[in-house]
Amino acid sequence: MAFTSSGNLSSAEMSTRDAIGAVNRAKRIDKIFAVGGILVMVIAMGLLFALIGDLVVRGLGRIDYDFLTSFPSRRAERAGILSAWVGSILVMLTTAFLAIPVGVAAGLYLEEYARKGWLSNIIEINVSNLAGVPSIIYGLLALGLFVYGLDLGKTILVAGMTLGLLILPIVIVSTREAVRAIPRVIKEGAYGLGADQWQVMWHYIIPAARPGILTGAIVGLSRAIGETAPIITIGALTFIAFLPPAPVSGDFPFINFDWLTDGFTVLPIQMFNWISRPQADFHVNAAATGVVLMALTLSLNGIAIWIRYRLRREHHN
Amino acid sequence: MTTYRSILTVSILSATLAVAAAAREVISIDGSSTVFPISEAFAEEFQIETRTRVTVGLSGTGGGFKKFCRGETDFTGASRPIRKGELEECRENGVEFIELPIAMDALANVVHPDNDWAQCMTVDELRRMWEPEAQGTITNWNQIRDTFPDAPLRLFGAGVDSGTYDYYTFALTGVEHYSRGDFTATEDDNVTVQGVSSDRNAFGFLGLAYLDENRSRLRAVTIRQEDGSCVGPSVETARDGSYQPLSRPLFMYVNASALDRPAVQAYADYMMDPENGVFLVEEVGYVPLPEEAFEMGRAKIKARKTGSYFDGGSEVGVMIEDLLAIE
């Protein structure tokens, strides 16, 4: 002890000091990372809110009952978005009716029934890949196949089919994720009680996976509602001042599907048309249309959150 | 509950299968985005007056002709005359058409309001600015004229799919769709307005309506005419034909066999009625044709006079009188 000079630290002391240094360094890096992360988030959110704020400030004042219930017009102050929002909602309905059943069935099959092998691997890779294909490609496919190949015309049905294809991968992937997240014990317990595969599927897997499946479906739909490129490609109209026949009527058979074969326009197209007009009043209309579109998307997401919350609670009870 | 659901499902499915393409009379119009405001105005008024359904698409002049020559649309708007290839396509599909001039438009060359040098330019200078050989080499204002300052030249213009681009390049270089590629091309003239109004050294071209809405942010460059005078773009100079070579007629093409449908015939008559035509065209910011032009159009429709006067290409310096002389 007495022989130890002050310049020569013992190895134990050295390693303690090293360790403290390393911890301090790690803490510093941690802090830098956190600050950097917050900065990036603030910038991103700031930009987003600036954009939304700008849109709302310019457009909100234009939204009134007349704007929502009038057809487009050459006079900006008389123009409205009735045909556009009705078109958007009808197209979304068609999309949901086509994509969700097929997507969920495909997801369940791939996850629960399909034998794992090279074929299912290829399908899996392709489904994931399809989720990244640019939407215009779906539009071109639909133009060639649905509009000209099958001669279905430029109708709401074709738009729904196109956007349905577009969101199919999202629905499939989210269904599979939801099924995969179900604890094994639920399935094994059911099998243990003598349930067959269909019973397990119907009574246990689907109810447990429902929140995840619905979330995926609605995320897909909120992507589809803002799509412009594929809809323009298949030949959606820009000026249309009449509504498709109502889907519900007082006479037998009460529901009709004539609207599926009608021409249509959607909110993003109406917005796109107005933003490129020379008159500033039309730009205000475009901003107002943007606010409505955003409100629709937000409420879709809101519904998703609400359904998920409700179903989770139901499931746990 | 379950049975109710399955009944509902079955009825939905069967109803889907029984979708009948009920024949609802619809007049379909498509074509140029430049002509769109005019088509929209006619469609809106006609629909209010007659309750006939009219739809207008926005495929651009080229895209519009594609659909039109397949027989998918009844009318198509065009900011240039039909091309040879398009004529050919129409002929192959047996689509005959009547060509109706519907309004005049002018293309404006615009600069930043602070730009005090580019006042009156010659067509030759404009051509040197835009021809394909200028790509990468003509990048400074002083290369256009010695007295211009040493400042970088930044160009904005209509997207290469538009009839506006086709006409502009044709008027300057003599060949449609022929220009340098290194400029900011946009399908939305408001982008050109933005670009030019925020850059002192910018130069761009756009439709007259966009200039008129932004006179405080843009200044129009006048063009030296053959008689030495400098003429700027305006409704008056487009109407009297003194603004050359960038005044151009806009067209509406009608499918001749569609005219056999009473609704289409009624719409064509409505369009060619000067009482509607003059004020609707003016209201949306274009230059209306004189009454004689409407009369001529009506006569053309009545006689089912098909084909294009322009023989598959644009023509520079077409004045209203020329359109009237077309028989």
Automatic annotation (TrEMBL), chain A:
<feature type="transmembrane region" description="Helical">
    <location>
        <begin position="130"/>
        <end position="150"/>
    </location>
</feature>
<protein>
    <recommendedName>
        <fullName>Phosphate transport system permease protein PstA</fullName>
    </recommendedName>
</protein>
<dbReference type="InterPro" id="IPR000515">
    <property type="entry name" value="MetI-like"/>
</dbReference>
<comment type="similarity">
    <text>Belongs to the binding-protein-dependent transport system permease family. CysTW subfamily.</text>
</comment>
<dbReference type="GO" id="GO:0005886">
    <property type="term" value="C:plasma membrane"/>
</dbReference>
<keyword id="KW-1133">Transmembrane helix</keyword>
<keyword id="KW-0472">Membrane</keyword>
<dbReference type="GO" id="GO:0005315">
    <property type="term" value="F:phosphate transmembrane transporter activity"/>
</dbReference>
<dbReference type="InterPro" id="IPR035906">
    <property type="entry name" value="MetI-like_sf"/>
</dbReference>
<keyword id="KW-0813">Transport</keyword>
<feature type="transmembrane region" description="Helical">
    <location>
        <begin position="156"/>
        <end position="174"/>
    </location>
</feature>
<feature type="transmembrane region" description="Helical">
    <location>
        <begin position="32"/>
        <end position="52"/>
    </location>
</feature>
<feature type="transmembrane region" description="Helical">
    <location>
        <begin position="224"/>
        <end position="243"/>
    </location>
</feature>
<feature type="domain" description="ABC transmembrane type-1">
    <location>
        <begin position="85"/>
        <end position="304"/>
    </location>
</feature>
<feature type="transmembrane region" description="Helical">
    <location>
        <begin position="286"/>
        <end position="307"/>
    </location>
</feature>
<keyword id="KW-0812">Transmembrane</keyword>
<dbReference type="Pfam" id="PF00528">
    <property type="entry name" value="BPD_transp_1"/>
</dbReference>
<dbReference type="GO" id="GO:0035435">
    <property type="term" value="P:phosphate ion transmembrane transport"/>
</dbReference>
<dbReference type="InterPro" id="IPR005672">
    <property type="entry name" value="Phosphate_PstA"/>
</dbReference>
<keyword id="KW-1003">Cell membrane</keyword>
<feature type="transmembrane region" description="Helical">
    <location>
        <begin position="82"/>
        <end position="110"/>
    </location>
</feature>
From TrEMBL, chain B:
<keyword id="KW-0592">Phosphate transport</keyword>
<dbReference type="GO" id="GO:0006817">
    <property type="term" value="P:phosphate ion transport"/>
</dbReference>
<feature type="signal peptide">
    <location>
        <begin position="1"/>
        <end position="20"/>
    </location>
</feature>
<feature type="domain" description="PBP">
    <location>
        <begin position="19"/>
        <end position="275"/>
    </location>
</feature>
<dbReference type="GO" id="GO:0042597">
    <property type="term" value="C:periplasmic space"/>
</dbReference>
<keyword id="KW-0574">Periplasm</keyword>
<comment type="similarity">
    <text>Belongs to the PstS family.</text>
</comment>
<dbReference type="GO" id="GO:0007155">
    <property type="term" value="P:cell adhesion"/>
</dbReference>
<dbReference type="InterPro" id="IPR024370">
    <property type="entry name" value="PBP_domain"/>
</dbReference>
<dbReference type="GO" id="GO:0042301">
    <property type="term" value="F:phosphate ion binding"/>
</dbReference>
<dbReference type="Pfam" id="PF12849">
    <property type="entry name" value="PBP_like_2"/>
</dbReference>
<dbReference type="InterPro" id="IPR011862">
    <property type="entry name" value="Phos-bd"/>
</dbReference>
<protein>
    <recommendedName>
        <fullName>Phosphate-binding protein</fullName>
    </recommendedName>
</protein>
<keyword id="KW-0964">Secreted</keyword>
<comment type="function">
    <text>Involved in the system for phosphate transport across the cytoplasmic membrane.</text>
</comment>
<dbReference type="GO" id="GO:0005576">
    <property type="term" value="C:extracellular region"/>
</dbReference>
<dbReference type="InterPro" id="IPR050811">
    <property type="entry name" value="Phosphate_ABC_transporter"/>
</dbReference>
<keyword id="KW-0813">Transport</keyword>
<keyword id="KW-0732">Signal</keyword>
